[in-house]
Amino acid sequence: MALRYLTAKVAQQIDEELMNSAGAFSLDQLMELAGLACAQTLAKAYNKEKYPRVLVCCGPGNQGGDGLVAARHLGMFGYQPTIYMPKPGSKDIYKRLHKQCSNMKISTLPPEVSPDSLRDALSSSDVVLDAIFGFSFKGPVRAPFDSALQLISSSRVPIVSVDIPSGWDVEKGNAEGVGLNPDVLISLTAPKEGVRSFGGRHFLGGRFVPISMAEKFELNLPNYPGFDQIVELPRADSQKL
């Protein structure tokens, strides 16, 4: 059976069940596993010898938390991550994850960084990890994110997007044409409807999904190789959708 692509409603329902009494996961656990999968995907696609400098772009929500976890793991992997937060998150978990990165001596661009400074950061980066917006994003893209997405897009630096490329609708994709166009995508739990036609390298990171939940939602998840947290999916143009 074919891998299931999720609507926003089903993706939200799965997240809720993972963290309620049925799934029994904490948010910290899920962020740690998701962020590790994101870091492993970037390392798989862009080796540290050729692409050591990573600009990790984090939004203020849970997607940004995944990015902060990924930044820490990338530092552990031997990369040189720098964190960029167009709007820092205010929750305690977000602040703790950022502190963990600071303890790893991972630098963060100053708040309200100027467009010129962001351009400079992009020009001195080898790859971007996009963890700005998640599957709950609803347009339009507002300040300060609109200018950030434009600068990231125009930089021509390779992009790895987390779960859904920033600016994309979870079900309609990049219909408005304002979202990022990543080279690599790491879907979490299961891919979302809006990325069915994504043509770049596509990975799945959802090894934390319990068997009972995968069966209940008929996710039809692929097997993960060995002890990897990720599995690469066939390209959109090589399969019937």
TrEMBL record:
(6S)-NADPHX binds at residues 62-66, 134-140, 163. InterPro entries: YjeF_N_dom (IPR004443), YjeF_N_dom_sf (IPR036652), YJEFN_prot_NAXE-like (IPR032976). It is found in: Cytoplasm; Mitochondrion. Its cofactor is K(+). GO terms for molecular function: metal ion binding; NAD(P)HX epimerase activity; nucleotide binding. It catalyses: (6R)-NADPHX = (6S)-NADPHX; (6R)-NADHX = (6S)-NADHX. It is an enzyme of class 5 (isomerase). Residues 11-221 form the YjeF N-terminal domain. Binds 1 potassium ion per subunit. Its main location: cytoplasm. Pfam families: YjeF_N. K(+) binds at residues 63, 130, 166. One of its GO terms (cellular component) is mitochondrion. Keywords: Cytoplasm, Isomerase, Metal-binding, Mitochondrion, NAD, NADP, Nucleotide-binding, Potassium. Its EC number is 5.1.99.6. Belongs to the NnrE/AIBP family. Catalyzes the epimerization of the S- and R-forms of NAD(P)HX, a damaged form of NAD(P)H that is a result of enzymatic or heat-dependent hydration. This is a prerequisite for the S-specific NAD(P)H-hydrate dehydratase to allow the repair of both epimers of NAD(P)HX. This is NAD(P)H-hydrate epimerase.
